[in-house]
Amino acid sequence: MVTLMQHNNNLSTGHGSASDPSAAAGALSRAGHSAAAVVLGFILVLGFFCNFLVLLVFSRFPGLRTPVSLLLINISASDMFVCMFGTPLSFAASVRGRWLTGSYGCRWYGFSNALFGVVSLVSLSLLSYERYSVLLCSIQSDSSQYRRARLAVAASWLYSLVWTLPPLLGWSSYGPEGPGTTCSVQWHQRSAASRSYVGCLFVFCLLLPLLLMLFCYGRILLAVREVNRVNRSSAERKEGRILLMVVSMVTGYLLCWMPYGIVAMLSSFGRPGVVPPAASLVPSLLAKTSTVLNPVIYVLLNNQFSRCFLYMIRCSSEAPPTSGHLTPPSDTGVWPHPPDLPTEEQNTAPAMFTSRDQQPQRTDPVLMVDFQT
């Protein structure tokens, strides 16, 4: 009788054991599993397509590969890995209404999604810092900017490994979450070690990247406003578009990740059962939508990237040229550069904001709201 009551309590709170990842599957109705499967299906298809498109365009146009764009490529790559190695497992589990790959598959899912997710979060914050340093700090050589960008990419993966390997080594653990069709860090465990890990993960992998983004983008907005006071030409339009871009970036970050972090903290430090399994599934789905929102907000809305994408589509839709009308190949070997596309040697010179009474040394694309340099 006691065993039966304990099992029913696990189902009602979504706290199935790590050895049985499907234990909490009964906490969600068949209609709920179907709805989750539909949402995950859309996220899987759109996330894979958008990130594949981003990586394809960057591969076709080397002139787009600025130091900042290396971080954008890193974000798209990590989101692509989520779509390849994580989302299909949770989609299949939602279709069947239970976890399908056992405890080892559950731990792999939890680790891989945490690893790629933290890489994406850290890269977003490093992206804001890179933009801030290029615009507001001293001019650096092209080689030093590229070297720093490559170090930032490597640091994002190393930092993520530092925070996602511990559950595999005994500091907390990976297991089922919510209704049992997804796996993550065991937020519900109430040991001192588990709570300390959840608290550190929230602070160092969610809160600090957010604060860095707010600081860097806030300084960029202030700098743009000061320049616009000197040069009133189309100032309001430029400042408004940059503000819209910044608000979109920060809002996307908060919408995708903050609910998940709050639910994790409530599950760890709140009273037992405060977060029902069905409710805990919603923040998990929101976190996965970052694989769709990131390429849209950070890349596809970029003017320069959009021109390259349209140019590529236009070229691919045209009939192949005859032997008498062949154009000389570009340096990519595949697509010629569209008009005015900067090369790798031309696109890294930053603008400097030295004082309120000085114009920037050049018209930087960020002031034209490309926000890509």
UniProtKB/TrEMBL annotation:
PROSITE patterns reported in the protein's UniProt record: G_PROTEIN_RECEP_F1_1 (PS00237), G_PROTEIN_RECEP_F1_2 (PS50262), OPSIN (PS00238)
Entry keyword set: Chromophore, Disulfide bond, G-protein coupled receptor, Glycoprotein, Membrane, Photoreceptor protein, Receptor, Retinal protein, Sensory transduction, Transducer, Transmembrane, Transmembrane helix
Family note: Belongs to the G-protein coupled receptor 1 family.
Intracellular or extracellular location(s): Membrane
Biased composition (Polar residues): 344-362
Membrane topology value: Multi-pass membrane protein
GO molecular function: G protein-coupled receptor activity; photoreceptor activity
Protein known as: Pinopsin
InterPro entries the record matches: GPCR_opsins (IPR050125), GPCR_Rhodpsn (IPR000276), GPCR_Rhodpsn_7TM (IPR017452), Peropsin (IPR002962), Retinal_BS (IPR027430)
Gene3D superfamilies, sorted: Rhodopsin 7-helix transmembrane proteins
Sequence segments annotated as region (Disordered): 321-373
Main location: membrane
GO terms, biological process: phototransduction; visual perception
TM regions (residue ranges): 35-58, 70-91, 111-129, 149-169, 196-222, 242-266, 278-301
GO cellular component: membrane
Top-level division of the source organism's lineage: Eukaryota
Organism: Lates calcarifer
Domain G-protein coupled receptors family 1 profile: 50-298
Keyword Transmembrane part of the UniProt annotation: yes
Name of the coding gene: tmtops3b
